[in-house]
Amino acid sequence: MTAAVITGRALPRSKATAAFLVLAAAALTAAAAQWRVHLPFTPVPITGQTLAVLLTGAALGRRLGAAGQGLYVAAGALGAPVFSDGAGGVEVVTGPVGGYLIGFVFAAWLVGRLAERGKDRSFSTMVAAFAAGSAVIYGFGVAGLIAATGWSAVAAVERGVVPFLLGDLIKACAAGLLLPGAWRLLGRRQRG
């Protein structure tokens, strides 16, 4: 159950609704970026962005989820202070965290696609979908770190993936518990 249900049954289907959902996804990601913890050994902070990215992909589906993340990255690249620490500008997108930001679009698309295929209905499949989305973000992130810093692939993984694995596992488990339950609740309300 994804945005097709949200926009098809719970809300009227319209371009205005779709635009609102895309804007809301970008705004949620911008807000989540401001929750951050800086680590001394990497330019990549711990933020709430990945949770927002993957949740909006799962909730809105591949098209709207990816569009929301695309809007977020584009707004930030154009200078809106939506990235971590209120940063904005093309230099952020081309810098050490740029790969992660670009990966958000693809991860939201993938998790949205998996949700459209029903992978958001149980704990195990939702955790697996979030893990797949996180892997996409990590892949783009490592490539961006290598390009921006000149680090080796091993160093980029050690500083740009390993410190974040536990947190992302916790986020995936939380989504695995919350999202299937939310869809069941929404389904009950629609029938009642």
Write the layout of secondary structure elements.
Layout: H1 3-10, H2 15-33, E1 36-37, E2 46-47, H3 49-77, H4 90-93, H5 98-116, H6 123-149, H7 153-160, H8 165-191
Antiparallel strand pairs: 1-2
Helix pairs in contact: 2-3, 3-5, 3-8, 5-6, 6-7, 6-8
Text of the CATH class = Mainly Alpha
Instruction: Quickly give the CATH architecture.
Output: Orthogonal Bundle
Question: How many strands in all?
Answer: 2
Arithmetic mean pLDDT: 89
Structural class: mainly alpha
CATH topology: the name is Arp2/3 complex 21 kDa subunit ARPC3
Share of helix, binned: over 70%
What Rg is obtained from the alpha carbons, in whole angstroms? 16 Å
Strand order of the largest sheet: 1-2
Number of helices: 8
Description:
The protein has 192 residues and is an all-alpha fold. The protein has a single domain, classed as Arp2/3 complex 21 kDa subunit ARPC3, CATH 1.10.1760. The chain is built from 8 helices and 2 strands. The chain has helices spanning 3-10, 15-33, 49-77, 90-93, 98-116, 123-149, 153-160, 165-191, and strands at 36-37, 46-47. The protein has a two-stranded antiparallel ribbon with strand order 1-2. A hairpin with an 8-residue loop joins strand 1 (36-37) and strand 2 (46-47). The longest helix has 29 residues, at 49-77. The model is unreliable at 3-12 and 188-192 (pLDDT under 50).
